[in-house]
């Protein structure tokens, strides 16, 4: 396998890691208005991701840096063409991070509610816009002969990309709510499981529509098989949650998101950014990649660093594996 092909799939794996891990963070943030009946409930919800949210978020930094190093033309075209959308994602992530750190700094309820609103918006905006961005990458955008995006921001808000954004929004929401049910106890756990049942139905319908559209319009045999696996995993996750098997449901949601991302990358391959106006202007794995030497150095670095990073993250989740509930928050106050 050529190194540029290998790094195409490594970057796919990095985005899978990001969407699976930060995806449930987004879902927990979006669930505050639905599961947080009072400040204690909201503190329980935030504490389920408190020890890990910033670690989860580093995956997008690693993915972006790898994209820049392995496929600089792809990085330059996507980040310049999607500048406003990516800026909104960045601002939302900043607002969410600030809110986690500042909401507890003052006792006033109004102060806390303001930061809670920022958490909700800071979670929903990236969850939506990441889907819109990847939907446009798969669909193709107008590029000139120098691989510059020549469309407008509103060209990115097309029906397919918006459906992709709605799909990621709902997938992350359901993923996050199921995560809450695996990490909490008592009434919040019961409410989270019930909410996941309701949101799961909508998620199945929307995600199935998106996967069918992707397969019919942009897919290959390989991407069609991957899409089918994602659909089966999503339905299985819903059934597992319905039976009260929360951890199984969470694992199956991770599988769903992983195979959905693989579906998008398989639909792209061997392109990395198709040109909708002229196929000759498309960015491919070949014309967008760095030199073989650069990719070789990156491969050795990844081989050494990746196991260490994964072991550390796994250890972090093991340390903070216990469930929490209202009693833990109320005890901490005294």
Give the structural class: mainly alpha
Got a strand count?
2
User: Low-confidence parts lasting 5 or more residues at pLDDT below 50?
Assistant: none
If helices are DSSP runs of H or I spanning 4 or more residues, what is the number of helices? 13
Major sheet: arrangement of strands: 1-2
The dominant shape is globular
Radius of gyration from CA coordinates: 20 Å
Question: What's the main sheet like?
Answer: 2 strands, antiparallel
Average pLDDT number: 93
Strand content: under 5%
Count of separate structural domains: 1
Helix content: over 70%
Strand-and-helix sequence, N→C? HHHHHHHHHHHEEHH
Ends distance: 60 Å
Give a description of the structure.
The chain is mainly alpha-helical. It has one domain (9-333). Helices cover 78% and strands 1% of the residues. It has 13 helices and two strands; from the N terminus they run αααααααααααββαα. Strands 1-2 form a two-stranded antiparallel ribbon. α1 (3-30) runs antiparallel to α7 and α1 (3-30) packs across α8. The longest helix has 32 residues, at 187-218. The protein is globular.
SSE order and pairing:
Layout: H1 3-30, H2 32-35, H3 39-49, H4 53-70, H5 72-81, H6 83-102, H7 109-139, H8 159-183, H9 187-218, H10 221-242, H11 246-268, E1 271-273, E2 283-284, H12 292-319, H13 326-333
Antiparallel strand pairs: 1-2
Helix pairs in contact: 1-4, 1-7, 1-8, 1-11, 3-13, 4-5, 4-12, 6-7, 7-8, 7-11, 8-9, 8-11, 9-10, 9-11, 10-11
Family: Belongs to the cytochrome ubiquinol oxidase subunit 2 family.
GO molecular function: electron transfer activity; metal ion binding; oxidoreductase activity, acting on diphenols and related substances as donors, oxygen as acceptor
Keywords: Cell membrane, Electron transport, Heme, Iron, Membrane, Metal-binding, Transmembrane, Transmembrane helix, Transport
């Amino acid at each position: 396998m050529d190194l540029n092909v290998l790094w195409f799939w490594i970057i796919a794996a990095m985005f899978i890691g990001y969407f699976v891990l930060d995806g449930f963070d987004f879902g927990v943030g979006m669930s505050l208005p639905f599961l947080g009946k009072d400040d204690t409930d909201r503190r329980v919800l935030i504490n389920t991701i408190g020890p890990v949210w910033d670690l989860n978020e580093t995956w997008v930094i690693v993915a972006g840096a790898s994209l820049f190093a392995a496929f600089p033309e792809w990085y330059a075209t996507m980040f310049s063409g999607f500048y406003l959308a990516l800026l909104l994602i960045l601002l939302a992530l900043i607002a969410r991070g600030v809110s986690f750190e500042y909401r507890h700094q003052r006792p006033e309820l109004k102060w806390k509610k303001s930061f809670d609103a920022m958490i909700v918006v800071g979670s929903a905006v990236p969850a939506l816009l990441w889907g819109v961005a990847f939907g446009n990458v798969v669909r193709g955008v107008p590029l000139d002969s120098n691989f510059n995006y020549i469309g407008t921001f509103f060209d990115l808000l097309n029906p397919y990309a918006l459906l992709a954004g709605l799909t990621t929004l709902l997938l992350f929401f359901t993923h996050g709510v199921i995560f809450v049910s695996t990490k909490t106890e008592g009434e919040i756990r019961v409410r989270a499981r019930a909410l996941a049942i309701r949101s799961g139905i909508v998620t199945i319908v929307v995600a199935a529509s998106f996967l069918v559209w992707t397969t019919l319009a942009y897919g290959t045999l390989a991407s069609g098989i991957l899409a089918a696996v994602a659909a089966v995993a999503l339905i299985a996750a819903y059934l597992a949650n319905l039976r009260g098997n929360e951890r199984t449901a969470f694992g199956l949601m991770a599988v769903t998101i992983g195979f959905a991302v693989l579906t998008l990358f398989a639909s792209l391959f061997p392109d990395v950014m198709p040109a909708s106006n002229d196929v000759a202007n498309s960015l491919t794995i070949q014309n967008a990649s760095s030199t073989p030497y650069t990719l070789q150095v990156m491969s050795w670095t990844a081989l050494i660093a990746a196991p260490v990073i994964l072991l550390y993250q796994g250890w972090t989740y093991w340390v903070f594996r216990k469930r929490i509930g209202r009693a833990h928050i109320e005890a901490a106050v005294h």
